[in-house]
Design goal:
6% strand; single chain; two-stranded antiparallel sheet; mainly alpha; two-stranded antiparallel ribbon; 4 strands
Length: 175
């Protein structure tokens, strides 16, 4: 990253480090939120791919909402990749805890959404799974997964994401 961009980062000592700014856009929350003690705070937050696309006018508000809804289901279904060990796992034969009804319903709805996109192996299904579900960047998906395991251009990947979000919005009845 250039020195000019590093200088543009906030000088807040409690804020994100320069290394965090190197990983993508970070900004303060627009409204004050309550912290753990109930005091007002304006934390920093990472700006996700869908928000950036909506700001640029590439996707509509309904498409952004469809992506947010899919991601929320993905988290509820516990399909997101774990960054730390799952503390619910218990040793000695109790590792396979049954899914809750909420998780089962979320997984069912994710399956229905992927079917509406042509299945998980389709370009749209794979893109939504990785970019929206796993929060990969479009570039990361294009280079690592792409269509049928072959890398594709970032422009083509963006087009696939826009198309899939449009179909997802229609599936959810948002457009």
């Amino acid at each position: 990253m250039s020195k000019a961009k590093r200088k543009a980062t906030p000088a807040d000592p409690a804020g994100p480090t320069p290394e965090r700014f190197d990983r993508g856009l970070v900004e303060r929350a627009t409204a004050a939120l309550a912290d753990a003690d109930g005091r007002p705070a304006r934390p920093y937050r990472a700006v996700d791919t869908l928000t950036l696309m909506q700001r640029k006018g590439t996707i509509s508000a309904a498409m952004h909402q469809a992506g947010d809804d899919f991601h929320a289901l993905f988290v509820i279904a516990q399909l997101d990749p774990l960054r730390a060990p799952d503390l619910r796992r218990v040793p000695q034969g109790f590792r396979d805890l049954p899914l809750t009804l909420q998780q089962v319903e979320a997984r069912k709805r994710i399956g229905q959404a992927l079917q509406a996109l042509g299945g998980s192996a389709s370009p749209g299904g794979s893109c939504i799974w990785h970019v929206v579900g796993h929060a990969w960047s479009v570039k990361e998906w294009a280079l690592n997964r792409g269509w049928g395991g072959r890398s594709i251009s970032q422009e083509a990947a963006s087009g696939i994401l826009v198309s899939a979000l449009g179909m997802l919005a229609a599936h959810y009845g948002l457009e």
